[in-house]
Fold P2X purinoreceptor 7 intracellular domain-containing protein.
Amino acid sequence: MAEGTEYDWDFDEVMVETGVRGYLYEPQYSDEQLRAMEEQEAAEAAAATAEAGDLPAADEEPAMARARADWWCLCSHCAPMDTEQESVCCREFQRCQFLLDEIMESEDDTDVCVVDHPSFAPHMDSGVLETYFRIPKVNWKRQPKPTGPNGRLSVKQFRLTAYRHFLEWVLQGERLGRGRRVVLPACVVQAIRQRYPAPDGQYCGHQEAEDAQDDL
């Protein structure tokens, strides 16, 4: 995604050029104070990660492994994934919460999944995805070309575009920082793969979804 103007300064070179000596006047802390500071920083970092909505908070993670199992699924639509990183349900994915709330407003059942949202299927429509693919976007790194027959998208391009389109939907205009990647919920990945399956049935796991964030 396009970033604002950044100054590519080398901090060490600036320190040498200006004659600044780092940490010369830093206060001294006892070992106990340093441990307390490190614990506080770790807690703040964990809370920030959970708030970002990419993964559940560390203290919410069960000890049992998630990879290649689906016991962790809360929406009944997730499939077993190959890695722990991919094994996330939409009910844990905080960026989906506003969509889940919209579903529950119109349904009595609280056991809902984001793929049940009335707008999910239209967003995944091939015509919508192809239009989305072709419109120049200021936050795309480059404008890719269709590689399918007759100038249309290939099945893989439809799949990658669907990943990217869903991400843009839940981000609601938010821009991720440089180098940040979002692992999509397993139920969403499963629904997209069923709609636009790989001919050989082979997928590259979360790497494929990351390619959509890098290349599109």
User: Anything to note?
Assistant: The mean pLDDT is 75.
